[in-house]
Amino acid sequence: MSNLYWESFRTFFKIGMFTLGGGYAMIPLIEEEVVNRHQWVSKDEMLDLIAIAQSCPGVFAINISIFIGYKLRKTQGAIATALGTALPSFLIILAIAIFFHQFEDNKVIAAMFKGIRPAVVALIAVPTFNLGRRAQLNWLTIWIPIVSALLIWLMGVSPIWIIIFAGIGGYLWGKMRNENEGMKK
Hints:
By secondary structure, the chain is mainly alpha-helical. It contains 7 helices and no strands.
């Protein structure tokens, strides 16, 4: 196994091991390791990978690790990073399943899980705001994520429809902007 395979596996294993709250809570750690520390992708590429990983079916953390691994070393890189991401969760869940009956009624453990909840919300909120800033949301475009969230939350619209309509809207908007820029030249 090449050094890059081992390094990418180890990086994503560490991220998977020490992140509570799922894939979105992993974004700051992934960005720190992949963009800042190892410089495997640029900030702009990372933003694009996040958007693609969100819109693909499956687990976000696995999706983004696969895309980064594939960019590094094609299929073998994708396998190394996906295994690195999934293995910690698998091992933790396996351990919990084996020992859960011993502490399921423990008040200290229950209190710890209740205490972790607000931290998980913060771990998800911070990358969301950072993504919004990097996506150059402003007062003219902020309505899009707000309306999308309200449609999903209040009206029960499937997120799949939001993604489809947002993709079509973005394509049409980009096409219209390019045509207007072509007319100005």
